[in-house]
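Record type: monomer structure entry
Structure origin: computed from sequence
Chain ID: A
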Amino acid sequence: MSGFTAARQKMVDGQVRPSDVTDARILDAMLAVPREAFVPAAKQALAYLDLDLDVAEAGAATRCLIKPAVLAKMLQAAEIKDTDRVLVVGCATGYAAAVVARFAGQVVATESDSALAAKARAVLAELGVQNASVKTAVPADGDAADAPFDVIILDGATEITPAGVYRQLKEGGRLVGVFALAQPPRVNLVTHSHGDFGHRELFDASAPVLPGLERVPAFVF
């Protein structure tokens, strides 16, 4: 067993399974997808640690792969079916998109950093992922051209209500992300039913805020 393969197994057994992730499809996907491929060479030794890992190029704004256990729990909450069309918002180098593509019908991912979006496309192609594509777009825009989606995953946190992204959910669709509108931040499940959007708080979690989804500072006299 190679070093990265062993580290992948330890990540699943030591971080993901103990976080009450029982969906075998998610466990199998995280065992199969080489997370190190989505990480700069200088940081590959950190690829399987329990942290939000910055994958941006030197000098660029921080962009992270979120903690493996947080991602896994979010995907489990989304209850993704093998026929679902899934939007991954703010995919960075594409790790979450690659994981979701193992058990979803089709995946579209967006990333605001054009260099990271190009990296995501290249890695997905190298891994032979054929049911996922990556577009360059800011998180708040989602992907209106390909909407509506059965599931939307925010691959990071939001400090605002992303109403425009909500409207890209199909009737019966689900959106999952880390909502940091208040403290502590919590993963929320948003459902679209009869033209309305319901929210359910699932568990406490932290993640870096996605670009453009930051809270607008209030004016103070």
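Annotation 1: The chain has six helices and nine strands.
Annotation 2: The mean pLDDT is 95.
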